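ugh ok so i messed up the first submission bc i forgot one of the chains. this is the corrected input, ALL of the components this time, i swear. 584 residues overall. if the numbers dont match what u have on ur side tell me asap before i send this to the collaborators (the ones from the other lab, u know who)
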Amino acid sequence: MQKALYYINITEKNKRGIIMNYREYIASRLESITGLSCEEIKKVIEIPPDPKMGDMAFPCFILAKTLKKAPPLIANELMSELNNDIKFEKVQAVGPYLNFFFNRAEFEKDVLTRVKESKGSFDKSEEGKGKTVLVEYSSPNIAKPFHIGHLFSTAIGNSLARIYEYLGYDVKRLNHLGDWGTQFGKLICAYKRWGDPKVIEKDPINELLKIYVKFHEEAEKNPALDDEAREYFKLLENNDPETTKLWQYFRDVSLKEFKRVYDMLGVSFDSYAGESFYGDKMQEVVDILREKNLLTESDGAQVVMLDDMNMPPCIILKSDGATIYATRDIAAALYRKRTYDFYKNIYVVGTPQALHFRQIFEVMKRAGWDWANNCIHVGFGLVKFPDKKLSTRHGDVVFLEDVLNESIQKTREKIEQSNPDIGDKEEVAKRIGIGAILYTFLKNNREKDIVFSWDSMLDFEGESAPYVQYSYARGRSILRRCNTDFSNPDFSKTTSDEEYELVKQINAFGNAVSDAADKNEPFYITRYVTNLAKCFNKFYNTHPILKGDVDVQTQKARLAIVDAATQVIKSALYLLGIETVESM
RNA sequence: GCGCCAGUAGCUCAGUUGGAUAGAGUGUUUGGCUACGAACCAAAAGGUCGGGGGUUCGAAUCCCUUCUGGCGUACCA
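and heres the new structure output, hopefully the right one now
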């Protein structure tokens, strides 16, 4: 029994998940029996929909033609060939499928040993060593509130950054601040007219928002205001000292407020180079595009025509000669390539801007920059209200900070009623409250819209961060109470369905991380860790560890399982930007 | 009009190199705390996978068509 795995050669490359080794092994056995190639077999081997059917299955359809036999018959014949293999508990033919059942104790030993040896970084990889991945995310506008919609980009970007880091990439977090554009002309205009420095000093973002909203109301009645705003922006562009000073002030107070929210979320950046940073880097882009003969004049503007790609033209210079966001984004991409020599350049920006990115990436390709192919737009849906869309211009915003505080407050109340004696309630409430909000933004396909609702946002039951955090806390509680040394357990007594399924789920972590990175989709991890917690809770409810009369060997093995499960839950939550608590 | 995305249980959503009986959570009904932590577990009920056609041994998944919704459609970002 102990030797069952000996002839499986675990190579350095193949270390990730013993499942891979089983696949390899099954393929090599079937290769010699069926004459199919190893690669062909590996491709069709699958995980059965129900664990009761086995751990892996080989569908026999592909052999039907060559052997001229019905698949169920083939499955039966293969079964008799393989049934004495020591590596499997059993091999079973069910209809056209050949189902393999692993040796559970061996499997558990392998997985849990690997978790333990990883010391908190299970399945961490070095595949990205020496490669830089840029993640642009969050990117709020200066002098405007950090609202609930910004959390989408912030949560996804932060998670992706951590995921790529876990895979060994050198990650640079970029906050492309919206700190330039005609909107600042409007703001300065509003400030000159209605701004009271003393009032604004006290609560800058809110007061600036007020006058910004007022500007739009007044401008509807009096269009001359818009012209005035354009004048102010022109002054800003020409480095007029007074206007620039004002702008700098707006930027400073805004960043200060943003950073407060980022601290709450545990989010950080390597660069805050926003739109203003690229002001002097756009002329070169215009020159390059002109030199490569890509610019065409159209309605007075300089554009790159993209009709052959079925896209509207990409405007590089407006008819008044001014640059536009496309120019800025192209300049930024070029700057980033030169500065970071990125392997991937990821933009976490809403799906409504999908066309914009397709356009500028295409323009960059036409400029001869093949690295444009490594620029990726990672889109996400809208945060909506049941009845309307968020609009800063009309002042109907939900501040992210308010949402976070509300959630923390609710957690506080919950702790007070269910577990009032724990230490550091504030920190615990913060981690759980914020985790719950982050989870709701990371639990589904990122392109799906989210309809804002306090009820669902503050629902701490079922699929939620608190559910996962709770599982973790229960596991840690057991480990805290026990005095047993479980360093060298024997898993022959922990082969029940619940125990085995939990270990299988632990083992699947690496796949979840790779999937999340491949698709730039954090929700693969969210789903994974929720399943892991579910498996843990089921195990927890069916198998006593410290209570009752559990024999020492069984207890040690179960403790080892708890230890590994909590460790992997923590790692997975970390990749989502969600923290754990020891008790809650 | 054109482009992109979506339509799966009452609600919110998983489920693509085509495979076994379409799955969770929530809500509803019900059972389990003198506790290794009930923010938990267990059970029941709930489905023409928007409609129609096609491809094949087999389709939620691929193709065509149609309906509905969202977003985007050159000088805002």
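quick check: The longest strand of chain A covers residues 88-94. that seems consistent at least. The mean pLDDT of chain A is 90.
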